[in-house]
Automatic annotation (TrEMBL):
Assigned keywords, A-Z: Methyltransferase, S-adenosyl-L-methionine, Transferase
Residue ranges annotated for the O-methyltransferase dimerisation domain, each copy included: 33-99
PANTHER family per UniProt: O-METHYLTRANSFERASE CICE, PUTATIVE (AFU_ORTHOLOGUE AFUA_4G14580)-RELATED
Claim: Ubl conjugation is one of the keywords in the record: no
Superkingdom of source: Bacteria
Source organism of the structure: Streptomyces virginiae
Protein name: O-methyltransferase
Domain O-methyltransferase C-terminal: 122-328
InterPro entries: COMT-like, COMT_C, COMT_dimerisation, SAM-dependent_MTases_sf, WH-like_DNA-bd_sf, WH_DNA-bd_sf
SUPFAM superfamilies assigned: S-adenosyl-L-methionine-dependent methyltransferases, Winged helix' DNA-binding domain
Length: 350
């Protein structure tokens, strides 16, 4: 018997497995760590509008030139900085967002996403997936927000600044589409330091506002909302826990990126709203959906982070609508706010 050579090689059998594709993903913590290092070193500020060498940048930020070149080389693989033909580094659209003087700076959000305590949580994701619960309380003995505020004040400060940066990114888009016609008072529940509320009040000069958040967050409210601030006379700052109470006497309530706590608590919060609010009050919920195309890598990663930290989630569109209806709200509409966020427009029962 003679063996004929195989004339048509089997493409499938010969295809090289995507080893790099897998290993790059397995090492993707290095991308997060490199971004954090860039922020901690102040690299984006050190690199001005003209190209710089790794040596010049190293001198400017006080780093080892060889190690900094290696960091820059890794970051350029993710389009954070790029290298010109002379081997000098220049900004990209992405690295410009790390400049602290940029109006749309996101440096604090990068720090918040990569705080030192986050790394231990990610290593225990399998435990959360087995149990369906957070690992945070088990690790630290306190609920997430309590631990951040009580034990990690520097992280708490990063968080507040990060939320303001996140709000700044979307505040104009939200303020432009928020249905506030006819409203006399708007409350931002879990409104952070009030950047969005301040933007809404600036947009709608006849509307009054309520900023509701945890006591330590409200204490650091946006200067425009505090005593002596340009909007202070039109604002009430209310410290509290929305799982226990929601302010009354408000025409429109805004919940932006706050219903990711566990579903039972989210329904309690919305049911508190139904109890406290006047009949027919407007309710606007702004969220990232995990089944939303363009923002899906981001929202699914945030979904897992919320599982780890608070046993919470980023919802699918139908999942969130289900909670809203379970709490007794009447849904009118769901519309996009921007390329990665949606707005559910609802009301308390008439
Ligand atoms: C992800 S941040 C969103 C902040 C802001 N709405 C935004 O979109 O930028 C969640 C906010 O909810 C607040 N928060 C969390 N749990 C809360 C609770 N039980 N009662 C009141 N505020 C709460 C946090 O302090 C934080 O400011």
């Amino acid at each position: 018997m003679t063996m004929e050579p195989n004339a048509e090689p089997n493409a499938e059998a010969n295809a090289e497995p995507d080893v790099l594709g897998l290993l790059e993903r397995a090492l993707s913590a290095s991308c997060a760590a490199s971004l954090r290092a860039a922020v901690k070193l102040g690299l984006a500020d050190a690199l001005g509008d003209t190209p710089s060498t790794a040596e010049d940048l190293a001198a400017a930020v006080g780093a080892d030139p060889d190690a900094l070149r290696r960091l820059l080389r890794s970051l350029t693989c993710y389009e954070v900085f790029t290298e010109d033909p002379e081997g000098r580094y220049v900004h990209t659209e992405v690295s410009r967002l790390l400049r602290t003087d940029a109006a749309d700076a996101l440096d604090q959000l990068v720090l918040w996403m990569t705080e030192p305590w986050t790394w231990e949580l990610w290593g225990r994701l399998d435990e959360s997936v087995r149990s369906g619960k957070d690992v945070f309380v088990d690790l630290h003995g306190r609920e997430f927000f309590e631990q951040v505020h009580v034990a990690w004040p520097e992280s708490a400060a990063v968080f507040d600044r990060a939320m303001t940066q996140a709000s700044r990114q979307s505040a104009a888009a939200v303020a432009a589409v928020l249905p506030l016609s006819g409203a006399r008072t708007v409350a931002d529940i879990g409104g952070g330091q009030g950047f969005l509320l301040a933007s809404l009040l600036e947009h709608h000069p006849d509307v009054r506002g309520v900023l509701f958040d945890r006591p330590d967050v409200v204490a650091g409210a946006d200067a425009r909302l505090r005593d002596g601030g340009a909007l202070a006379e039109r604002v009430r700052l209310v410290a509290g826990d929305c799982r226990e109470e929601i302010p009354a006497d408000v025409d429109t309530y805004v919940f932006k990126n706050i219903l990711g706590m566990n579903d039972e608590d989210a329904v309690v919060v919305l049911a508190n709203l139904v109890k406290a609010a006047p009949a027919g009050a407007g309710v606007v919920i702004v969220e990232n959906f995990v089944d939303d195309g363009p923002g899906q890598r981001f929202s699914t990663a945030m979904d897992l982070r919320m599982l780890l930290t608070v046993g919470g989630r980023k919802h699918t569109r139908d999942g969130l609508l289900g909670l809203v209806e379970r709490a007794g709200l009447v849904v009118h509409d769901v519309t996009p706010v921007n390329s990665y966020q949606h707005m559910i427009v609802a009301a308390t029962p008439a």
